[in-house]
Inverse folding.
């Protein structure tokens, strides 16, 4: 990297040349330090960067990206605060996000530079959650359970429903109950709090976590963020991904611990077992059209043991010829394990939700206790 500070003329400007120092009024110490650091040789800067924390390096990248073109005269004014004498060439020092990326990758290892720059996007913390999503379930479960309950709830609420469920499936039932109730009752965290938590995650979890470097494989989409809105509904979406026994135990716990929250959570849950009372007849054709046949057969086969009403409902709303085909194939299948069967059934409900989101049909609201169920 060119050593602009070493080449810039620190002496009195040439005749007719007017020093432009009006930008100095808004320069902070971070801006000045960024200018000086960026003007060093790559070797000299790298030695300094090696001793800087990620927070300090992040501040440098932020300050440098805020700069516009820095004239030689402005660079001179800043340099005089750090250097006693040098000889310079009149060369502008470009600023901006692209230049910040170029300079930072010269001074720090590529992975570290990309991590810092990624954290600057989306308010400084959005990239962290995508990388947390990639941390192994076991490692993330251990980390989350070591945190205070409000912090743990905040972390889990920022992940996808499926990831949160996978982490909680590794925890003790009592812990899952407490943290999910915390999520359901918790108000959204402030941006400052989220940024502070993301910075801690960066230092404590992501630096050492395998597979959490932020590098995306070709064609891989970032992990979906948990949906905004009703906190109780968010918890309901999470427990949709848990095994049936744990899901039902949590629903019963919420009902007893906080009836209002329990009702919100229950309304958000959609299980394969209850599709026969939640889907309109027209939904069966759309579901069978869009669902992978192998997944459907596995879900139906397991449904013969835990959701006979839903199996009959689906068969009752398609042609007899299709029913005969399905029954012939089902007769040749072995009943899947509980894990495989429930996984297939969750895939079915995922497709149902997608069809609802696409406007294919609407789900029938759950009836309150005491109301007559649909035949």
């Amino acid at each position: 990297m060119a050593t602009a500070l070493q080449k810039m003329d620190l002496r009195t400007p040439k005749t007719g040349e007017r020093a432009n120092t009006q930008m100095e009024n808004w320069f902070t110490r971070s801006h000045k330090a960024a200018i000086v650091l960026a003007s060093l040789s790559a070797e000299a800067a790298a030695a300094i960067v090696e001793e800087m924390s990620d927070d300090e390096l992040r501040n440098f990248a932020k300050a440098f990206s805020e700069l516009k073109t820095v004239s030689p005269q402005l660079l001179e004014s800043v340099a005089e605060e750090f250097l006693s004498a040098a000889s310079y060439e009149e060369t502008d020092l470009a600023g901006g996000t692209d230049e910040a990326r170029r300079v930072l990758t010269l001074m720090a290892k590529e992975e570290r530079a990309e991590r810092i720059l990624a954290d600057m996007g989306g308010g400084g913390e959005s990239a962290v959650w995508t990388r947390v999503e990639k941390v192994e379930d076991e490692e993330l479960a251990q980390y989350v359970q070591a945190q205070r309950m409000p912090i743990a709830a905040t972390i889990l609420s920022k992940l996808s429903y499926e990831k949160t469920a996978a982490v909680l499936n590794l925890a003790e039932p009592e812990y899952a109950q407490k943290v999910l109730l915390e999520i359901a009752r918790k108000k959204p965290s402030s941006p400052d709090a989220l940024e502070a938590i993301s910075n801690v995650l960066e230092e404590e979890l992501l630096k050492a976590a395998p597979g959490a470097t932020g590098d995306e494989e070709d064609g891989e989409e970032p992990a979906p963020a948990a949906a905004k809105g009703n906190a109780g509904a968010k918890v309901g979406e999470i427990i949709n991904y848990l095994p049936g026994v744990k899901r039902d135990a949590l629903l019963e716990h919420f009902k007893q611990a906080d009836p209002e929250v329990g009702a919100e959570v229950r309304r958000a849950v959609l299980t394969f077992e209850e599709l026969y009372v939640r889907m309109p007849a027209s939904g069966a054709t759309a579901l069978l059209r869009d669902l992978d046949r192998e997944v459907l057969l596995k879900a139906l086969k397991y449904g013969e043991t835990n959701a006979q009403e839903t199996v009959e409902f689906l068969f009752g709303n398609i042609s007899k010829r299709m029913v005969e085909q399905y029954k012939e194939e089902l007769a040749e299948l072995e009943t899947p394990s509980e894990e495989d069967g429930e996984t297939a059934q969750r895939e079915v409900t995922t497709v149902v939700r997608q069809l609802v989101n696409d406007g294919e049909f609407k789900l029938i609201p759950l009836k309150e206790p005491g109301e007559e169920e649909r035949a």
The chain has three domains: 4-120, 126-268, 272-357. The longest helix spans residues 338-357. The radius of gyration is 29 Å. Confidence is low (pLDDT under 50) at residues 1-23, 84-90, 216-229, 371-375.
